[in-house]
Design brief:
By secondary structure, the chain is of the alpha/beta class. The chain contains 14 helices and eleven strands.
Length: about 475
């Protein structure tokens, strides 16, 4: 058996970034550095986050466990006890861990989480990082959904940072709204095109940040001993993308590149889940991971592709800030199956943060006026279908639900079973009301905090009988009074 590489590892995590890079086939994108990174290593085409929103997805990334397995599945909940993270195992294996910035995991970083929270780019460039192996993390926040706001709201939003940095882009790198590709499920209006153009400008700035790390590494003494892993927490921050379990919400970029890898550029179509990142990093480092992990390494300790395969990549949606829901989904290399446990809840419940997005304003306005296409209107309907099934090859934007198509009955049944098997194996605390998790002492009671965010939609925008957002799980799925 080949010896583990024990490389230095740099982990770069983009916020709210879908597969909108030139190396993933997006011709609107300007991402030369990320494309260059992909040209030197593995580019994974079927990598999927476990959740379409940051904290549950990052909880899975850090622990190698599904967020619903440990109780961290509700967005902006807080575990009372912090779980073990892969960074602790790295430190025990002799790695120096640097983790500056974002620690949005739905739990507090545990004791021993990192050696330092100091920035490390200058130390990398100048060869000042400790010998014996280091792990360095960087959050790439410029693409957060708030970058698409036209201006900061209540002093919030990554838009301020984007505006401060626009001078870094040349005229050729700036994205023209009139050229923006608008998905079929969003209205093709100037406001939506402007949101998409702003996102792509921010993605090019993110690409600049990735390039700065690559350049610093190349000028450092660590270039021959270091692997860079680039991925995103979940999909782009537009309606029906972030917070939702379609491919646009959970299909993420994943690139692993560096001279220690034994093979050159390679496209890998295997299924990779967000829970697989932690055990893969530990395998590369020659460190042990816990037996109860939900993840499987997709690279061996020698840097070669592993033989492990997945029947499906499983993801889920639970409470999103003040909006309760429970959705689970299974994806193979072509088809996505979605199970909506509470179909009586509308897709587009009001979430105060999401309503700040101009694209959401456009959806509400045009739906009230009866001016949406069928593909756009289906997400604004009064209730969900209990199940959904999509063919990503013929319908990559997932607007044609084929759950009742007899030609795909065997696919539906196979993915139903794969989802059930994975949920049974890992355990799904999403079956329990949040108040029960609070009663058991698993999570902090933050329901009052989020109840304060609930406000009614204006009458013309209300979806059926739902004038207000539903915060907590209904007592029964058949209940008409969900509030």
């Amino acid at each position: 058996m080949a010896e583990p590489l024990r490389p230095n590892i740099i982990l770069l995590v983009g916020e709210d970034t879908g597969v909108h890079h030139r190396c993933y086939g997006d011709e609107y994108a300007v991402t030369p550095n990320i494309d260059r990174l992909a040209a030197g290593g593995f580019r994974y085409t079927n990598a999927f986050s476990t959740a379409p929103v940051c904290a549950p997805a990052r909880a899975a990334l850090l622990t190698g466990r599904y967020a619903w397995s440990i109780g961290a599945h509700h967005m902006r909940s807080t575990l009372t006890t912090s779980p073990r993270t892969f960074t602790q195992a790295l430190r025990e294996a002799g790695y120096h861990v640097r983790w500056p910035g974002k620690t949005d995991f739905n739990f507090e970083p545990p004791s021993g989480f990192a050696d330092s929270v100091d920035e490390w780019l200058d130390d990398l460039r100048e060869g000042r990082l400790p010998s014996g192996g280091f792990f360095a993390y960087r959050n790439l926040g410029i693409t957060h959904e708030s970058t698409m706001w036209s201006e900061p709201i209540d002093g919030e939003g990554m838009v301020r940072r984007r505006l401060e940095r626009l001078d870094e882009l040349t005229d050729a790198e700036r994205h023209r709204p009139e050229d923006a590709p608008v998905p079929a499920y969003l209205p093709d209006t100037p406001a939506v095109r402007e949101d998409i153009a702003r996102y792509h400008d921010a993605l090019t700035l993110q690409d600049r940040d990735v390039g700065a790390v690559m350049d610093a590494l190349e000028s450092s003494p660590y270039a021959d001993e270091t692997i860079i892993i680039y991925l995103s927490d979940h999909g782009r921050g537009l309606p029906r993308e972030k917070r939702w379990c379609y491919d646009a919400g959970v299909h993420v970029p994943l690139i692993v590149s560096g001279r220690p890898l034994p093979l050159g550029a390679r496209v890998d179509d295997r299924l990779v889940s967000g829970v697989d990142i932690a055990p893969t990093i530990l395998a590369l480092a020659g460190a042990s991971h816990r037996a109860d992990t939900d993840g499987i390494p997709f690279l061996t300790g020698s840097g070669a592709p592993s033989d492990a395969t997945r029947a499906a990549a499983v993801s889920g949606r639970d409470r999103m800030d003040e909006a309760f829901d429970r959705v689970r989904t299974a994806r193979d290399t072509r088809y996505r199956y979605i199970r909506n446990y509470f179909p009586q809840l509308p897709y587009a419940q009001r979430i105060s943060y999401m309503e700040r997005q101009q694209s959401m304003v456009e959806l509400r306005r045009l739906h009230a006026a009866g001016r949406l296409t069928d593909a756009q209107a289906q997400w604004m309907c009064e209730a969900k279908r209990p199940e959904e099934l999509y063919d990503s090859t013929t319908d990559p934007q997932m607007v044609e639900n084929r759950i009742d198509d007899p030609a795909l009955a065997s696919v539906r049944d196979r993915l139903r079973e794969a989802l059930d098997d994975e949920l049974d194996r890992s355990g799904d605390l999403g079956e329990l009301p949040e108040r029960e998790l609070i009663r058991r002492g698993l999570v902090v009671d933050r329901l009052a905090e989020y109840r304060e965010r609930i406000a009614p939609l204006s009458e013309e925008y209300q979806l059926g009988t739902f004038s207000e957002t539903v915060l907590e799980m209904p007592d029964t799925r058949e209940s008409e009074d969900l509030r």
